[in-house]
User: Fold this.
Amino acid sequence: MNKIIKYSFCCLIASSFSLSLVSDATSKSNAAMISTFNNKVQAKTKSDPTWKMAGLNKILESGDSVRTGSLSRAEIKYSDGTVTRVGSNSLLRIEAHGEKRTNIKLLVGKLWLKVKKGDGRLEIRTPTAIASVLGTELLVTNDEKNISHVTTLDGLVEVTGENGDKTLVKPGEWVEIAPGKNIEKPTKFDWDALKRNEKFMLDPTFMPKPEEFKDENNWK
Assistant:
């Protein structure tokens, strides 16, 4: 459904879409670290705003940004056990949230998340909605037109749009959030098609051939 997501070198701007993820907050540190990566992954820090190749075990702090190239991805682990996987041609920024949690702003691209249940809160933002999650596994995407999709693989996600309208996205459902529009009614997605077409995001051991790679959401 979405076009291939290209690099976005635009400035990081304030967003109105946030996913509030409830998870374990046993650690007093909100540290994040790049645990694995494939191909081109770059990072820039608050103290050095120059894009540089990111290495294994790169620590990410509030204000740091990560971007990926084509056929590239990065897995980021957090001190509370939460794991996120950044898809190809994506751009995000890490932000602090108190002492225990780390927030993420997804400007463009794809993000897979597996968040533990608990009483801490993690926020993921894109430009068009607010979602509250009670410990879950999900996919979040945002394209160049700021059309976002929230896909619930496990758990429940409450999504709030720009107009204040809300909807609950259950396991096996996805919803589209477009700028200036009410949230569409969540619909079922094809699990087999998702696993096949989003294997690059869901399976960290899978690396397709360049000519076979498709960075698009054609399973919806």
